[in-house]
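Hi,

I'm pasting everything inline rather than attaching a file, because the server keeps stripping attachments. The sequence lines come first, and each chain or strand is labelled.
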Amino acid sequence: MIFALIVALVIPLGLDLYMPVPDDNPLTSEKIELGRRLFDDRRLSRDGSIACTSCHDPARAFSKPDALSPGVSGRRGSRNAPALINRGWGRSFFWDGRVATLEEQVLKPIQDPNEMDLPIAEAADRVGVSPQDISRALASYVRSILSGDSPFDRFVNGDRGALSPEQQAGLQMFRGKGNCTACHVGPNFSDEKLHNTGVAWRPSATSTGSGQVGTFADLGRFLVTAKDEDRGAFKTPTLREIAWTAPYMHDGSLATLDAVVDFYSDGGRQNPGIDPEIRSLHLAVEEKQALVAFLNSLSGSIREGQP
Amino acid sequence: MKRTIISGLLVVLALASIVAADDKKATVLFQAAQARETIQGDLKGAIALYQDVVKEAGGNRAIAARALVRMAECYQKLGDAQARKIFEQLVRDYADQKDAATLARERLANTPAAADQRIVTRQLWSVPSEALGERTPDGLGTVSPDGRYFSFVDWSSGELFLHNFTTGENRRLTNDARKAQYAEESVISRDGAHVAYAWFNTDGYELRTLDVNAKGAAPRVLFANHREDPLVFPYDWSPDGKWIVVQIRRADGTGQLALVSTVDGALRVLESSDWRRASGIAFSPDGKFLAYDIAADSVPEQHDIYIIAADAHQKIAAVVDPANDMVIGWAPDGGHLLFSSDRSGTHGIWALAVADGKRQGEPRLIKADVRVKPRGITRSGALYFSTALSHRDIYVASVDFETGKLLAAPARIAGQTVGFNVAAQWSPDGESLAYLPRSKDASTVAIQSIATGRVRELRPNLAYVFDEPPLWSPDGSFLVVVGPDQKGRWGIHRVEARTGDTTLLAMSDPPAKNAVHPIAWSSNGQTLYIRRAVTGSASETVAFDMRTRHEEPIRRVTAGFVPSPDGGAWATLEKSSSGTSLRIEPAGGPVRTPLQVNAPEDLSGFGGQGPRWSPDSRFVVVRGSQEDVWAIPADGGSPRKLDLGHLKPANLQIHPDGHRVAIETAEQKVEIWMLENFFPTVTGKK
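And the predicted assembly:
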């Protein structure tokens, strides 16, 4: 009989000690290691060209510098590959929050025609691991990917020299005039909720500028719930490692952090259902620079797998 | 014959004196037994004393029966079958003692009604009124595990005290309070030797501990991270005394459930909680788990209960349902978690069986129709709780500011609720009175018509409306209130007077702190003067342009800086070694030499809003340290003490007619009660 050693991850500074782990998928060294191997296994794609690491590069905070990463046969989806860090604390997954568990999420890209395009049964045959074990192993590995101990974390825990004066000004802006904490809160800088910031809104050519006429290039959460109030709503992403995870937004449409800050300073893109927290901020140049400086302080150390 | 009669009388008198002496002894023993049982929690010691009572009772069958009842209940708490034998003895041998015999029969029958009647509720202490401030019950702490002591803040000094239930004495523990520095929430350790408490100073809160037995010992500052974790409150000690569980509110308004090491002050954050707060957090008796309640997402009135392992390896949903469920504490044997809930339609005490941090079965109702603010469970299983009997209410009177005389006696406003109404403010046309009915939802604002008495309620979209009179807009179309929004961000908000629709005007900096307040309108109604906390005790008066939302600092002050209604002057109070000065400056002009006010008592404004101007700008109205109210002529005449009848105002607002005043009184009564004898009901032991 083989006894699996249930592991406790070493949690970096700045993150909660409690991470939700399903009772039927406790973290074990074996599963995490299997998950790491599967994460880099191109056999999980139809033509053997794509692995999870193709879109979630460990060297870039498990993200990719493409707005829309290519899948098999060069196909592209409509959404940016999010950074897979600290997802163990996630409450829903994908930009539209359509999946509630990591165990479910990790199997979707394998089967998505625009990504790895392989039925899960066939994937299981190829790697010699059951679909359930693929799910549990990959989920366990993703849970083990942790980012913390950033200069920001050290600053809020007492090291007053960890942030430069400009970064400290940016932190104050982040919490105050910038109103960023309306959505980017908590250890992962995400409320794990979905908001319409207008990034998917395309005003019509005849629009007078009031933002009331146009369409959504991507309906976001509405595609899951069919509720009008969910049109154009996307999940708040983490800001950890944000310096490494350009381009930004659900569609990768904003290339730099400066562009992101400009977007919010201008009040997003006005549309009929825009989140009431999104409003013109009229930030001065130095305020924007301070914000960007602060955001760059959210890069810490990334660890994955075993402690 | 005569000698016989006299001798007989002497014998009777002698016998009577012996009986009286025995009675007295039995009574004294009975009181000692009660104290041993309920205060010290020594059930076996109490049983021995009750046995002595029965021996010494002699012919006093009533006291003997009472002693037997108490003895049986002690045995019952110990799970000893001797309880049943004593109840049977009472039924058999003390049938003439009707109350005791009836109770004994019910215990023997063990009906649900009997079970409820087994539970005993007893008032232990009424907190002295001089110790109560406007902030009570924020300063109430917990009972010691032996039931002997209770920690609390005396708001007359801001120091932390320990009340002794046995002697009635109050012993001061801290000696550091001064203006803007004071103790708040406290909790006594499981061994009764230490107390952990939140200490507020101008930078924020600190977590401190004290050895209660070491007189004069300096407190240990265990945790202080003012800038990033400005609020930290203790909830419980681990049974081994090595950890204190705290709730932290961070600078961004989010919360954390964390453990602070009593060895080195290290912080272990178990879980972050966005803007929601736990009302109760308690270590299990074995120290392995913590039970806590927290509001369900987007439903602030619905708290659910979770149990998290102290090493964070697991968390379970213990009580999750549409009801409002809040943690009270653990049974001494750790087998049950007590919580309050309105799941039956009214508030009651419920128990959930728990094993190894996991729920076992469904909760059971222990006591119906009771709402407790828990203050700890003792080793003997007695639940201590507090009740606040508030007499905070609003009265309307009429005064002559020229003479200070009362023109019409104060009359309480006829609102929908009595005793919990605060923070009144007249509308600009004088036809309505806005106030906060605190018996309702914490964000409710009431508007009462003076002519008809009819009250309508607004429910701004805020987590809480702060205890400060709303400021009406000059046209009466909206109110300005202070409070945190649903994301815990403090600020001043505009609330439409007809609909209650709410919009943020200015956010506090940092958002987690209550650091911005409205003061008054400019005479043209286009500028709202606000006060922002800066550093330490300093604040800044700022002109907030309602149209552009631009803020222009005007003056850095240490007390309220309030414009006159006609815009011609500013008033502020300044304290110095020579007394309190009322400084009145012409608006826009040079600073005058301060007008020195010779008043027989120290003067202050009304809370965060400072002194009040009369509508004609002729008088500045302030409060004295003896709780009197003074009208000070702005042109330098003698102060007049206002005759307000028997009322001692915590707040006062002047009607546009210049005579009527709305007075808020702040009398409160806070009691500490004990609920005992309900664990046999919980465990089902007979």
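DSSP finds seven helices and 49 strands in chain B.

If the labels don't parse on your end, tell me and I'll reformat.
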